[in-house]
């Protein structure tokens, strides 16, 4: 039996049966799932995160935010995960203050909630193209997972909304992106959410994919491997190779 006590606000793994192994030799990250890895007890104390370094706060926080947004808009979203994901997104704006002042316990509390709700969301729905690509890129570069998610989040959101508007205008995820925007920045316009995400990434001083170690000549390899990732299957619409290339180019 495991008692999980997180000291970062990011993965939400304390309430999932998921784990990730990295093989630097093979440049891959592999996700494992087993009921045996589900903690018996999760003790989430925001006070344990106050001395988390700013760069780790930023990376783990952007992972938490992504793990609320992707389940909300995934093709496996359901009423239970909707509640968790939206609550997590409403807490997510505290990431800026937690990064700027790690001693702010209220900001740390909000980010711990965001992380917890993200874990509950992804464990009971699915993720999407951000995580489908991020796992591959992380294996190739060794960059922080949350930094990669931060670089990809706005471009994937834009690509998904554009693809659904063109090819699947009745997709319920379009409305869900509007709900996410309202939760994040108070208005139901996706454009406002995209601006908020880009501005947040700038405040957190997170670089693009090239700065994180991914050379453009590897983009085609990322797309090919990303298509095989389990998270990609949860994306609200299947993105074409050209759309995924747009995502990577926009994340540079």
Q: What would you note in describing this structure?
A:
The structure is a single chain. This protein has 252 residues and is mainly α. 56% of the residues lie in helices and 6% in strands. The strands form 2 sheets. The chain has a two-stranded parallel ribbon. Helix 1 packs parallel to helix 6. The longest helix has 23 residues, at 145-167.
Compile the SSE list and pairings.
Blueprint: E1 3-4, E2 18-23, E3 28-33, E4 41-42, H1 54-73, H2 79-91, H3 95-100, H4 105-124, H5 129-141, H6 145-167, H7 172-185, H8 190-203, H9 219-227, H10 241-250
Parallel strand pairs: 1-4
Antiparallel strand pairs: 2-3
Helix pairs in contact: 1-2, 1-4, 1-6, 2-4, 2-7, 5-6, 5-9, 6-8, 6-10, 7-8, 9-10
How are the strands of the largest sheet arranged?
1-4
Mean pLDDT: 96
Helix content: 55-70%
Largest sheet: 2 strands, parallel
Low-pLDDT stretches are none
Number of E-state strands? 4
Number of contiguous helices: 10
Radius of gyration: 17 Å
Secondary structure class reads mainly alpha
Percent strand: 5-15%
Distance between the termini: 43 Å
Overall, the morphology is globular
Give me the strand/helix succession: EEEEHHHHHHHHHH
């Amino acid at each position: 039996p495991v008692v999980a006590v997180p000291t970062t606000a990011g993965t939400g793994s304390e309430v999932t049966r998921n784990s990730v192994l990295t093989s630097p030799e093979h440049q891959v990250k592999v996700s494992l799932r087993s009921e045996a890895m589900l903690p018996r007890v999760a003790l989430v104390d925001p006070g344990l995160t106050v001395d988390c370094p700013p760069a780790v706060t930023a990376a783990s926080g952007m992972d938490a935010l992504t793990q609320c947004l992707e389940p909300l808009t995934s093709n496996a979203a359901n009423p239970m995960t909707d509640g968790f994901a939206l609550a997590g997104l409403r807490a997510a704006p505290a990431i800026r203050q937690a990064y700027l002042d790690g001693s702010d316990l209220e900001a740390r509390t909000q980010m711990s909630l965001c992380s917890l709700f993200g874990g509950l969301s992804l464990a009971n729905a699915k993720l999407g193209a951000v995580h489908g690509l991020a796992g591959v890129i992380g294996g190739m570069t060794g960059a922080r997972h949350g930094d990669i998610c931060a670089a990809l989040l706005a471009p994937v959101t834009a690509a998904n909304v554009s693809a659904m508007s063109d090819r699947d205008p009745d997709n319920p995820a379009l409305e869900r992106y509007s709900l996410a925007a309202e939760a994040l920045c108070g208005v139901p316009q996706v454009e406002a959410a995209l601006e908020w995400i880009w501005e947040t990434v700038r405040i957190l001083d997170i670089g693009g994919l090239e700065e994180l170690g991914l050379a453009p000549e590897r983009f085609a390899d990322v797309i090919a491997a990303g298509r095989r990732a389990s998270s990609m299957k949860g994306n609200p619409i299947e993105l074409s190779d050209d759309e995924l290339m747009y995502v990577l180019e926009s994340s540079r």
